[in-house]
Amino acid sequence: MAKARTVYFCQNCGTQSPKWLGRCPSCGEWNTFVEEVVQKEDKNEKGSWRPPGNTKLAPRPRALTEITYTEEHRTLTKDKELNRVLGGGIVPGSLVLIGGEPGIGKSTLMLQIAVSLPMRVLYVSGEESEQQIKMRAERLGKVDQNCFILTETNTQNIFKQIEELDPEVLIIDSIQTLQSTYIESAAGSVSQVRECAAELLKYAKESGTPVFMIGHITKEGTLAGPKVLEHMVDTVLQFEGDRHLAYRILRTTKNRFGSTSELGIYEMIGNGLREVSNPSEILISQRDEELSGITIGAMLEGNRPLLIEIQSLVSPATYGTPQRSSTGFDTKRLQMLLAVLEKRGGFKLGTQDIFLNIAGGLKVEDPAIDLAICASIVSSYEDLTLSPKICFAAEVGLGGEVRAVNRIENRIAEAAKLGFQEIYISKYNLKGLNLENFDIHVHAVSRLDELFLRLFK
């Protein structure tokens, strides 16, 4: 047995140092180094993962022209949203990390996948008992004999069970609870998380078994433990949303087997997560009467066009400093748009309290909703209603100009599909655009004052 030694790890990025440092040289964070005991042992003992058969020979260099490959056969799940974010299904031998805040639905999503796959699945839980998992499965209304549950945190014991069961899919809930006997530090520490992930990575690549790992999120919104996890895995999925709202977004932040611009949308209901095939219909509220300050913006989430409802409330400030509050939208960009409206549009908003809300609990970064936000604020300020059959898709510049946005055809097609009759875009988007292909009236404007003359004439 090798001599035990202590190493300092940065809890933010996983950087290793032989001594304590006040400031991490890699990520620049202060007071993040923690001392951990690292014990090096022989990993050839029984219990560590070893591929069946003889030990394979050391690899030799090969010319790029000598290397051949075949198209990977992906496994399609019954969850179309998950298939989309994975790039077309589960890739054999892939290591997928799913992160999200506590209570967001990570375990529910993975258990739904485990019981719906027509394959032998091993679900390893280090946080819940077998009875708790069985209760959740019954609540989901899905109990499958091909899904096996193992409550264990020691990786060596887990690999012993893997050799006996030989699963076709492995799910780990969660990576922070696992502990390897090769490392003496506590479970959840940087060295433990790195070692356990490395053992699972070796198992996935040598056996060809896809592995899903659930990871926790810190209060700063990053994956708990080291950021090195994101570099080790093949795919990183982020499960986002407000626990108090029904809708969840599964977003891809890294994918070696597909695009990172895809996302899936779910609705949390009593018996689990329901796929949302047409999210625009649920993000736009149904109203019996027209109200001021409400507009519809055409945005893109990844490659997916969505129509969202924007709500504004403008009222005279009761105190000296007017309030500027936004939910689901960048407050600094809101202040910029307000300055443009006051300078270029002549609206006296300096003495008004302004509140902005993106309905449905979404957080939007697409600048294509700038025009919808400006129209919403002016509608509330003038107390004039806009038709619910009008939507907007354009960016607003500091000079009050209406700027073009990308993939305008997808936005217009989505608006036409949902029954909107008019859409306002930038005139600079008209180049190469065939309006005869869309069953919707397209208005092209170049400046904000031109837009307001058409809307509030």
Topology of this protein?
Blueprint: E1 5-10, E2 16-17, E3 33-38, H1 80-85, E4 95-100, H2 106-116, E5 121-125, H3 130-140, E6 147-151, H4 155-165, E7 169-173, H5 190-207, E8 211-216, H6 228-232, E9 235-240, E10 247-255, E11 263-269, E12 272-275, H7 279-283, E13 294-301, E14 304-316, E15 324-327, H8 331-345, E16 352-358, H9 370-382, E17 390-393, E18 395-396, E19 402-403, H10 408-417, E20 422-426, E21 441-445, H11 448-455
Parallel strand pairs: 4-8, 4-9, 5-6, 5-7, 7-8, 15-16, 17-20, 20-21
Antiparallel strand pairs: 1-2, 1-3, 9-10, 10-11, 11-12, 13-14, 14-16, 18-19
The radius of gyration is 26 Å
Helical content band: 10-25%
Overall morphology: elongated
Oligomer: single chain
- N-C termini distance: 84 Å
Mean pLDDT: 86
Q: Please indicate the percent range of residues in DSSP E strands (runs of 2 or more).
A: 25-35%
Give me the count of strands.
21
Strand order of the largest sheet: 6-5-7-8-4-9-10-11-12
Please count the helical segments.
11
Q: Helix/strand/pairing class, anyone? A: alpha/beta
| Uncertain residue ranges | none
Quick one: biggest sheet?
9 strands, mixed
